[in-house]
Design goal:
It comes from Rhizochromulina marina. One of its GO terms (cellular component) is cytoplasm. This protein has about 120 residues and is an alpha+beta fold. It has helices spanning about 15-20, 65-70, 75-90, 105-115; strands spanning about 5, 10, 30-35, 40-45, 45-50. The protein has one domain. The strands form two sheets. Strands 3-4-5 form a three-stranded antiparallel beta sheet. Strands 1-2 form a two-stranded antiparallel ribbon. β3 and β4 (about 40-45) form a beta hairpin. It starts with a strand and ends in a 5-residue tail after the last helix. About 15% of the residues are buried.
Length: about 120
Amino acid sequence: MHRLVKAGRTMSSARLLRLQAHFPQGRGPLLRRDLTAEAAFIEIGGVKAPLRRPQRPDLVPRGFVNHFEAHRVVSPEALGHFRWMLQKDLLGQDMFLLGAPGPARMRMAQAFCELTGREVE
């Protein structure tokens, strides 16, 4: 069974099954964050990036990933956006999120920063 590790703890099996119910089987987890003593990385849909230790951990957003999970917004579409954001981050390119008025883009950006350990001011 695949593990989804977040902030040093393994996600419960029930929660992982709820997440995996949205995705095609046989491809492994589409979202994976692993923190070990040797290296820390995030993998979204096959795109893997190292996590950097933030200089100011108090500025890293908290609770936005849980918001996506609690409201079942972690859909293949949302993971596709996170994957695209991770690709842009790896290439050092800027991102510009477009969409209808509302908090969705801000929540997605905050969740991405939480997943990658990026500071936000």
